Amino acid sequence: MNGVGIIMSIILGGLAGWIAEKIMKANVGLLTNIILGIVGALFLNFILGLLGVYTNPNWLTQLIVAIVGACILIFLWRAIRGRA
């Protein structure tokens, strides 16, 4: 996550993963929520960077990016497994 430390990345990742879990009606555990949130933020920040869009490095912007990224990852996982 851009502009936040390791501890804040874990906290934001867990929160973002939990929110994405509720939005997408997925049933995953705490560790998976943290991983989904962090990887989702990294994934979407990377994609936005390729498009020339750079996010503001504050916690609220990164939380929103992480939530959207985690939702995209859940959607892609379901699409690959055939349950979209």
Mean pLDDT over the residues: 85
**Rg measurement, Å:** 12 Å
Count structural domains: 1
Uncertain regions: pLDDT < 50 for 5+ in a row? none
Number of helices: 3
Number of strands: 0
Shape: globular
Family: Belongs to the UPF0410 family.
Keywords: Cell membrane, Membrane, Transmembrane, Transmembrane helix
Transmembrane segments: 6-23, 30-53, 59-80
Protein name: Membrane protein
Question: Can you put this structure into words, describing what you see?
Answer:
Helices cover 75% and strands 0% of the residues. The protein is mainly alpha-helical and 84 residues long. The chain has one domain (6-81). The chain is globular.
Question: Which descriptors would you attach to this protein?
Answer:
84 residues, mainly alpha, 3 helices, 0% strand
Gist?
The protein has 84 residues and is an all-alpha fold. The protein has 3 helices and no strands.
Draw up the topology in text.
Blueprint: H1 6-24, H2 30-50, H3 59-81
